[in-house]
Design goal:
about 375 residues; alpha/beta; TIM Barrel; 2 domains; 6-stranded parallel β-sheet; 15 helices
Length: about 375
Amino acid sequence: EPAMAPLLAAVTDGGLGQVPGVVTADGHGPPPRMLHGIDEPRPARDLMRHRRRYFIGELDPCASIEFTRGCPWDCSFCSAWTFYGRSYRKASPEAAAAELASIAEPNVFVVDDVAFIRPEHGDAIAAELERRRIRKQYYLETRADVLLRNTEVFERWTRLGLRYMFLGMEALDAEGLDRFRKRVDPDDNLRALETARRLGINVAVNLIVDPAWDAERFRLVREFALSVPEIVHLTVMTPYPGTEIWRTESRRLTTRDYRLFDIQHAVVPTTLPLARFYEELVRTQSVIHRKHLGLRTAFGAARILADRLAHGQTNFARMLWKFHRVYNPRRQLADHGRPVRYRLPLPPAAPVGDRRELYIHTGPAPRSGPAARPAGGAADRTQ
């Protein structure tokens, strides 16, 4: 995070290999450091050439902001906690509100890994927005247990414009949740959906598709997806470099093609033949897609589409009609036969003894020096 200024200086003055966080061609470099706070530097949104092209769903156009950075949980499939050393830093409420006030877009995606972990922090930002009379439409991501524990904060934010939420359920059963170390149970996931409905928040949930799934498991997921009003999103379990499962996944990699590590391709052995796996995956995604674009929801989608087109925003329309071009089982299978341009190196063979070995950032940068001035905000660390 504090590397950019010394990196630019080193390009002209030399000493590139001494900049913390920079890896040179020989594969080495000093370890990266973190800022003490995240109030500054603020994004230079005025330099963005295509601001009207950024959107998420029907929030079009949409800007992004972060109130916190990092995650104190340690889900086995995720790199957020390994990247930031399981630290969690908060922007000051005043800085968060000031940045929101500077955003021209009517819609904002709060990109925190888990929103409103600390209820007092979410309340303090809300109070600043109320004082400044800032109102937008918000989309954020959080956990089921956080929503249940801090319901009052989320309810307060609905009055400020919170309309959309992403919940990482990841699995429907306790076995799957334990495998991913989610530290939540299936009943809490379902209660969180009920809570969001009561608050009037539209929810999208994510389920991780294990390549070990058989046809019956795909059928059960389709059954669940059709039984709830929420959008159900599917991602394929992928051992990314930097995640714990990159080091611990016992199934051998079937490919090291970097392009296939995109959470839509299987990179470990599948129980079903690979072609059948992709057929079941896309069939399930198609059922979910039709649920939200069928006759029951066609009027709502048409209304949203007409409103966006009237304002010159075509992103939502393009998204609706691209499904079959993006999700295609034959194309996904054919991707495995393409020439490999970049082959990922194999993970270390040694087992992970202490999970802190996985940390990328191990501490904040020194407070002195031009590249590491205090930026405000507070930090928490969970070991």
